[in-house]
Amino acid sequence: MKKRLLATVLAAGMVLSCVGCGGATDTASASASASESAAASVEASADAASSEESAPAASGESIDLEMWCIATESDSNRHSYEAAIADVTAAHPEINFTWEAIENQAYKTKIKAAVAADEMPDIFFTWSCAFLGDFVSAGKVYCMDEAYQGFASELPEVMLGNTTYDGKHYGVPLTMNIVGMFANMDLLAQVGYTEVPGTYEDFIACCDALKAAGIIPLGCSGKETWCVTEYLESVIEKSIGADELNDIFLGRATWNNQGVADAVDTFQKLVNDGYFDPEGIALSNDEVKANFMAGKYAFYMNGTWNCADFAANADFGSKVKVAEFPVINADKASLGMLIGGPSDTLAVAASSAHAAEAAQFTFELGKEICHYGYLDGCGLPAWTPYYDTSAINPLTQAVSEICANAKTYVLFGDTAQNADDANTYLSYVDQVYGCAIDGAGFIAGLANDIR
Q1: Which of 21, 76, 230, 357 to pair with 399, CA 20 to 30 A apart?
Q2: 349-363 pLDDT tens trace
Q3: Within this chain, do residues 158 and 60 fall inside the same structural domain, yes or no?
Q4: Which CATH number does the domain housing residue 419 bear?
C-alpha cells in the first residue's frame, strides 16, 4: 500500500508540478523571457565553455570540488547532507570535497552575486524553475544530459521538468515539499478541537476561540519574507484557484486582479484581528519555529520539510498534525490545490574546471541526499526509493496522503518568478505583513513594477 501511494504521488503530483512551471520546453522562456536567438547563442557558448573547461581529470589525479548549499546547522536537511556527503566522498577518495552552508536569504544574495561575478563553486544548491532558469539563460550552468544517462533508471525524467530548459537538463532534484498547516493539537484541544479545522469558517472560529483563551493562533517570521508567502500564497490560491495564481506567477496574466486584492485583504484581516504573534515581525524563522514547538502558537504554516524536526522531538512529535489550508472561495478553489512541488535542486557551474566529474558526483550526492532526507521526513522523494520506507514518520506519511489527493501544484512564488520579479514581489509581501499597503495597493504596485 505504501509503495502504491508513493507511486501515485510521484507519477501524478510531479507531472502537475512540471506542467505548472512550464514543462520541458517552455520553462526557460517563461522564467528568463529571453528571445530564441539569444537563448541559442547563450546555449552554444555555455556548451563550448563546458567542453573546454571540464576535461576529465587524468587517471589517478586528485581533483578539488566545492559546493554551496543552505543546509545550515539549524536546517532540517542538515543530517541528510552530512550523511550523503560521508557516503559519496568515501566512494570517491580521488575527490577533495569541501562544502559551505549559508542561511536561506543570505544564500540567495550570495549565489546571485557569484553568478554575476563568475565566482561560482563547482556545485551549488538552487531552486528550480525561474531561479535556476535565470542562471541557465546566462550560460552559467553545465548541461547534465550526459551524466543523467547513468541514472535514468533511478530518477524518472518526469522529475526533471522544473530543471529542464529548451529540452536540456540542468539540475539534480532532491526531494519535494508543499506548504503544510501544522497544528499543535494540545492547544486546539483546550478550545474544543480534536481535529484540524477543515473549513475556513471553522478555522476562523478556532482562531477566535484560541485568542479568547489567551493562546496566539499563528506564528510567522516577518524577518524572513519567504515565510510570510507561505501564508499569503495559500490564502490567494484558496481564493482565486491554482491556475489563476500560476498564470500570474509565470507572466501569463497580470497582477491587476481583483481576486488577488480581495485575498490580500483576507490575509491582512488575519493580521489586523490579532491572530499573528505581534513579535513575529522581528523574529527569524528559527525563532518562530522554536516558539511553535514550545507551545506558544497553535498553528505554523511552513514547508513540510519541518516534519523531520517535529517528529524527532519526543515532547512535541505526538502533539502535532499537518493539513492543507482550507478553501476560502469554493467557486474557484478546492482542496487538493497546493503550494509547492519539486524545487530543491543541485546544479553544476559551467565554469567548473572539472564540470563532467562534478556532474557525476552531483547525481550520486543528490540520490543520497534524497535517500536520507526522505527517511528523515524532510520531504517526498524525487528519486525512486531503493530502501525500506516502513519507518517513515507519521507526519511525512500524512503529507504523502495530502499529495496523493493533489489536483494542482503552484510552485513557491519567489521560485516560480524570475529573480528581479521575485525580489519585487517579496518587497510587496513584506509591506502587506507590515500593513503598509492593502490589497489594492498590492496589485497596483505589482502590476506597475512587474507587468
Answers
A1: 21
A2: 999 999 999 999 999
A3: yes
A4: 3.40.190.10
The three three-digit cell numbers of residue 81, written as one number: 547532507
Residue 182 lies in a domain: yes
Buried b (16+ CB within 10 A) or exposed e, 384-399: ebeeebeebbebbbbb
Exposed / middle / buried, residue 36 (Cβ in 10 Å: 0-12, 13-18, 19+):
exposed
Q: What's the one-letter identity of residue 42? A: V
Q: Are 238 and 327 in contact (CB under 8 A)?
A: yes
Low-confidence stretches of the chain (pLDDT < 70) are: 1-60
In a domain, 406, yes or no: no
Cα separations in angstroms, 68 against 10, 103, 135: 27, 11, 15
Residues 111 and 366: their CA atoms lie apart, in Å, by 19
Indicate the pTM of the whole model.
Answer: 0.80
Question: What's the angle, vertex CA 133, arms to CA 124 and CA 249, rounded to 5?
Answer: 120
The widest CA-to-CA distance across the chain, in whole angstroms, is 71
- DSSP label at residue 158: G
Structural domain of residue 108, as residue ranges?
A: 35-176+343-388
pLDDT digits (tens, 9 = 90+) for 50-82: 444 444 555 568 999 999 999 999 999 999 999
What are the grid coordinates assigned to 41, written together? 547563442
